[in-house]
Amino acid sequence: MLKTIKIVAACVLAMLLLAACGTGGREANLSNGNGAGGNQEENNAPATEEKKADDAEKDNTETDTDEEQSAEKEDSSQKIRLLEMNITYEVNKETKEDTAFLKSSDNQDYSLYILPEFELTAEEPNKDVLYLKENDRHFMRIEILPSETNMDDAVATMKEQLTAVNSEVTQLEAKDSQWLENAHIYQAEKDGEIVTAYLLKKDDLLLKLTVFTTKDENYLDPFLKMAETIEKK
Predict the structure, then answer these.
(1) Residue 187 sits in which domain range?
(2) Which of 8, 28, 76, 142 could form a disulfide with 128 if both were Cys (CB 3.0 to 4.6 A apart)?
(3) Alpha-carbon distance values, 202 to 41, 103, 142, 198 (Å)
(4) Is residue 76 domain-shared with residue 94, that is, in the same domain?
(5) pLDDT tier at 2 (50, 70, 90 boundaries)?
């Protein structure tokens, strides 16, 4: 009987020990699951957010770069001028249209479109002459003045030069020419000769134009139409 009691007690003790081991293992597993696993997620969260921020910044940088490259291409395309263009002009109340060709000055920093009847040549440093081939009495002097030129002094000089044609110098206003709206325009006449001078800022150029023509054959309009196409190289 005593032996039987000992055996039962031993079995109960063994069962208690097994139960205790099972509880410890489960607690350990629960601790590992809630502790190590939870901490791992928390540790990974800042890294994930940082990666997202880096990716967003990279995307923004690539977008900015693409936009800059696109803008550079657009600027480059705007600087390209076609080799020819059609110009409509008037001579003695007769309207004409012809193809003008792009020409760069060898003497100054600009280009323009020139009608077939005309030719551009250097007159002296910083001065070109655009003239009618069949009659060079009709011509336009083109001068690019230094950017620091005083406008009041330049206007005074221009008016004084015109007094060599006629002491009476008339100030004119631009008509139907938007690009000449802010120009200083003066004219002098003598014996059928007409000299008209223009001083204006066009894009990055301070431009002085002096057109020589006549009342009988007035070529002022084609000269101005070609001058309107002047652009800095």
Answers:
(1) 84-232
(2) 142
(3) 66, 18, 13, 11
(4) no
(5) very low
